[in-house]
Amino acid sequence: NYLVANFLSATEVSSRELALLPAIKKQLVWLKLGNSSINDSAMAFIGQCSALTFLQLNNTGITDKGLAALSTLENLHSLNLVGTNITEEGVIQLKNLKKLHSLYLYQTSIKKNAWSKLVAAFPHTALDSGGYRVPVLASDTMLVKPPETR
Protein backbone atom coordinates (compact mmCIF):
# COMPACT_ATOMS: atom_id res chain seq x y z
CA ASN A 1 0.00 0.00 0.00
CA TYR A 2 1.30 3.42 -0.95
CA LEU A 3 1.19 6.32 1.49
CA VAL A 4 0.93 10.11 1.40
CA ALA A 5 2.32 12.19 4.26
CA ASN A 6 0.97 15.71 4.47
CA PHE A 7 2.33 18.15 7.04
CA LEU A 8 -0.09 20.88 5.98
CA SER A 9 -1.06 22.02 9.46
CA ALA A 10 2.24 21.04 11.13
CA THR A 11 4.32 24.15 10.56
CA GLU A 12 6.82 23.20 13.29
CA VAL A 13 8.25 19.91 12.04
CA SER A 14 11.23 18.54 13.94
CA SER A 15 13.79 15.84 13.27
CA ARG A 16 11.85 13.64 15.66
CA GLU A 17 8.86 13.49 13.31
CA LEU A 18 11.00 13.13 10.20
CA ALA A 19 13.00 10.30 11.76
CA LEU A 20 9.81 8.24 11.38
CA LEU A 21 9.90 8.49 7.57
CA PRO A 22 12.54 5.81 6.87
CA ALA A 23 10.25 3.22 8.52
CA ILE A 24 7.73 3.78 5.69
CA LYS A 25 10.25 4.62 2.95
CA LYS A 26 9.15 1.81 0.61
CA GLN A 27 5.51 2.93 0.74
CA LEU A 28 5.79 6.72 0.90
CA VAL A 29 5.10 8.13 -2.57
CA TRP A 30 3.95 11.68 -1.80
CA LEU A 31 5.44 13.97 0.83
CA LYS A 32 4.09 17.45 1.44
CA LEU A 33 6.31 19.54 3.71
CA GLY A 34 5.63 22.95 2.17
CA ASN A 35 5.46 25.96 4.50
CA SER A 36 7.02 24.02 7.36
CA SER A 37 10.07 24.73 9.49
CA ILE A 38 12.27 22.04 7.95
CA ASN A 39 15.80 22.76 6.80
CA ASP A 40 18.78 20.89 5.38
CA SER A 41 18.99 18.50 8.32
CA ALA A 42 15.66 16.98 7.24
CA MET A 43 16.96 16.08 3.80
CA ALA A 44 18.89 13.05 5.10
CA PHE A 45 15.60 11.44 6.17
CA ILE A 46 13.79 12.41 2.97
CA GLY A 47 16.65 11.12 0.81
CA GLN A 48 16.05 7.62 2.19
CA CYS A 49 12.46 7.53 0.89
CA SER A 50 13.26 5.83 -2.41
CA ALA A 51 9.62 5.41 -3.54
CA LEU A 52 8.87 9.17 -3.50
CA THR A 53 7.32 10.46 -6.71
CA PHE A 54 6.00 13.81 -5.47
CA LEU A 55 7.81 16.11 -3.03
CA GLN A 56 6.76 19.57 -1.86
CA LEU A 57 9.44 21.61 -0.09
CA ASN A 58 8.11 25.03 -1.00
CA ASN A 59 8.69 27.89 1.43
CA THR A 60 11.07 25.95 3.66
CA GLY A 61 14.60 26.60 4.87
CA ILE A 62 16.36 24.15 2.57
CA THR A 63 19.46 25.21 0.63
CA ASP A 64 21.73 23.80 -2.05
CA LYS A 65 23.51 21.73 0.58
CA GLY A 66 20.29 19.91 1.48
CA LEU A 67 19.35 19.24 -2.15
CA ALA A 68 22.34 16.92 -2.51
CA ALA A 69 20.56 14.33 -0.33
CA LEU A 70 17.68 14.21 -2.84
CA SER A 71 19.87 13.03 -5.72
CA THR A 72 19.11 9.41 -4.72
CA LEU A 73 15.35 9.75 -5.31
CA GLU A 74 15.27 7.91 -8.65
CA ASN A 75 11.45 7.72 -8.78
CA LEU A 76 10.86 11.44 -8.19
CA HIS A 77 8.49 12.93 -10.79
CA SER A 78 7.66 16.32 -9.25
CA LEU A 79 9.65 18.60 -6.95
CA ASN A 80 8.38 21.92 -5.62
CA LEU A 81 11.15 24.28 -4.44
CA VAL A 82 9.16 27.53 -4.71
CA GLY A 83 10.16 30.22 -2.23
CA THR A 84 13.42 28.57 -1.11
CA ASN A 85 16.99 29.88 -1.17
CA ILE A 86 18.26 27.27 -3.60
CA THR A 87 20.41 28.29 -6.58
CA GLU A 88 21.19 26.79 -9.96
CA GLU A 89 24.22 25.01 -8.44
CA GLY A 90 21.94 23.14 -6.06
CA VAL A 91 19.39 22.23 -8.71
CA ILE A 92 22.09 20.90 -11.07
CA GLN A 93 22.83 18.22 -8.44
CA LEU A 94 19.50 16.63 -9.41
CA LYS A 95 20.17 16.38 -13.16
CA ASN A 96 20.54 12.58 -13.04
CA LEU A 97 16.96 12.08 -11.83
CA LYS A 98 15.66 10.66 -15.12
CA LYS A 99 11.98 10.48 -14.05
CA LEU A 100 11.80 14.12 -12.92
CA HIS A 101 9.04 15.68 -15.05
CA SER A 102 8.23 18.88 -13.14
CA LEU A 103 10.50 21.21 -11.21
CA TYR A 104 8.92 24.30 -9.63
CA LEU A 105 11.48 27.05 -9.09
CA TYR A 106 9.53 30.30 -8.69
CA GLN A 107 10.86 32.82 -6.14
CA THR A 108 14.18 31.03 -5.64
CA SER A 109 17.71 32.43 -5.78
CA ILE A 110 18.27 31.17 -9.31
CA LYS A 111 19.68 33.93 -11.52
CA LYS A 112 17.99 34.75 -14.82
CA ASN A 113 21.14 34.06 -16.80
CA ALA A 114 21.29 30.49 -15.37
CA TRP A 115 18.01 29.31 -16.93
CA SER A 116 19.61 28.22 -20.19
CA LYS A 117 22.05 26.06 -18.21
CA LEU A 118 19.16 24.46 -16.31
CA VAL A 119 17.14 23.86 -19.49
CA ALA A 120 20.15 22.07 -21.00
CA ALA A 121 20.70 19.99 -17.84
CA PHE A 122 17.01 18.99 -17.65
CA PRO A 123 15.91 18.42 -21.27
CA HIS A 124 12.90 16.24 -20.34
CA THR A 125 11.77 18.24 -17.31
CA ALA A 126 9.30 21.13 -17.26
CA LEU A 127 11.03 23.93 -15.38
CA ASP A 128 8.40 26.25 -13.94
CA SER A 129 9.70 29.73 -13.15
CA GLY A 130 6.29 31.15 -12.20
CA GLY A 131 5.58 34.83 -12.69
CA TYR A 132 2.83 34.18 -15.22
CA ARG A 133 1.23 37.03 -17.12
CA VAL A 134 -2.32 36.24 -18.11
CA PRO A 135 -3.88 38.70 -20.54
CA VAL A 136 -7.20 40.23 -19.62
CA LEU A 137 -9.79 39.60 -22.29
CA ALA A 138 -12.92 41.61 -22.88
CA SER A 139 -14.95 38.49 -22.17
CA ASP A 140 -13.34 38.23 -18.70
CA THR A 141 -15.23 41.24 -17.40
CA MET A 142 -18.90 41.75 -16.80
CA LEU A 143 -20.89 44.94 -16.56
CA VAL A 144 -23.42 44.90 -13.75
CA LYS A 145 -26.08 47.60 -13.71
CA PRO A 146 -26.82 49.27 -10.38
CA PRO A 147 -30.06 48.01 -8.73
CA GLU A 148 -31.99 51.24 -9.33
CA THR A 149 -31.68 50.88 -13.15
CA ARG A 150 -32.84 47.28 -13.40
Please sum up the structure shown:
By secondary structure, the protein is of the alpha/beta class.
Describe how the helices and strands are arranged.
Blueprint: E1 3-6, H1 15-18, E2 28-32, H2 43-46, E3 54-56, H3 64-67, E4 78-80, H4 88-92, E5 102-104, H5 115-121, E6 126-128
Parallel strand pairs: 1-2, 2-3, 3-4, 4-5, 5-6
Description:
- With 150 residues, this protein is an alpha/beta fold.
- Helices cover 16% and strands 14% of the residues.
- A six-stranded parallel beta sheet has the order 1-2-3-4-5-6, with no helix packed on it.
- The longest helix is centred in the last third of the chain and has 7 residues, at 115-121.
- The mean pLDDT is 90.
Largest sheet: 6 strands, parallel
Oligomer, anyone? single chain
Strand content: 5-15%
Strand runs, count: 6
Helix content: 10-25%
Span of the ends, CA to CA: 59 Å
Strand line-up in the sheet with most strands: 1-2-3-4-5-6
Overall mean pLDDT: 90
Low-confidence stretches: none
Order of helices and strands: EHEHEHEHEHE
Query: How many DSSP H or I helices?
Result: 5
In angstroms, what is the radius of gyration? 19 Å
Alpha-beta content class: alpha/beta
Tertiary shape: globular
List keywords for this structure.
single chain, 150 residues, alpha/beta, six-stranded parallel β-sheet, 5 helices, globular
